[in-house]
């Protein structure tokens, strides 16, 4: 051991370099492993958390700084290890050379790579907020050099891999071709085929076709406690919270986050909602929820008023549940129910898309997306029980039309093809 004392300055420097390398490795793992939900919370947190969120807004810049610093530290570390090894070799101690070289390598692997990254992944939030401010200072220090590295990286890609292109994601056209293929060619079972049809249909269906109407869900103004629910779980699976002085939906609390012993205001556990216009497609709503890891979309009209909500579960049910319908979700009933020969009872919230698919008829040229909207358009006024109107081969008779509730319409076929069975 005494023969290593002359190399104390080099060994101390190597130990400091190990700490710097461990810091870079832990910073990379903690920051890039931080989930999107935590990133959004960090953006509204303390200075260290806001610094972490700001760094992740430019991930390429952050990664370049971390990798460059780690590379420089590792080069200096192994350069010092080589110097010490050369001196040990000159002293004729071959065993010390081998032991020191192997020990330097293993120490770098375990103490500056494996252990720091494992700790960072296990305690992501704590580590991310702890390293954010020093890492922000490092990125600012290396700021003048980063554009040079980015330019060199871009040039190298174009020179070495000029034809390298990003592989495109699966497109709707690919699904349409799969749906159009016969079961013999594509080996699709019935349920898989129906699921593919539903997924393709999301790109055409508007959110107002599948939303829960404003009259069919309950919202609460803050503060909200468990007692306000009166022991009843909201059918949507979410406690919808409005602004303090208005009725517009601003947040939602998943029922799974609510504990029986929770007495604090529920809005403290709420997550934000996404606002989309009534004409947005269901596919775009699903994509927005997936990207931001949220669960509720508030549908607004031309005036910015909330006219309904769509939940993550509603979209999944639309895609994967056989025979899923808005009437089933909202009223727990079949959307189209045969009651006699050529006579059906239809819920007003049933979409025209489903109605036309059921009866194998072309979709009408109308802005309305539901049966109730179609009846409004045909009558040119608010419907009342007993009102009748004609639509193609069908006669509509309004059985029930409460101002806030479910409209029931009787459809009677006059002429035309038989319905789908």
Which tags fit this structure?
single chain; 421 residues; alpha+beta; CBS-domain; 5-stranded antiparallel β-sheet; 17 helices; 14% strand
Written account of the structure:
The protein has 421 residues and is α+β, with helices and mostly antiparallel strands. The chain folds into four domains: 2-160, no CATH class; 168-203, no CATH class; 206-320, Roll (CBS-domain), CATH 3.10.580; 333-413, Uridine Diphospho-n-acetylenolpyruvylglucosamine Reductase, domain 3 (2-Layer Sandwich), CATH 3.30.465. It is built from 17 helices and 13 strands. The protein has helices spanning 8-32, 36-42, 47-56, 59-90, 94-122, 124-141, 146-160, 172-180, 183-186, 190-202, 207-210, 226-229, 282-292, 312-320, 326-331, 352-359, 371-379, and strands at 212-213, 219-220, 238-242, 249-254, 271-272, 274-277, 296-300, 306-311, 336-340, 343-347, 388-391, 394-400, 408-413. Strand 2 (219-220), helix 12 (226-229) and strand 3 form a beta-alpha-beta unit. Helix 2 (36-42) crosses helix 3, helix 5 packs across helix 6 and helix 8 packs antiparallel against helix 10. The protein is elongated, with a radius of gyration of 32 Å.
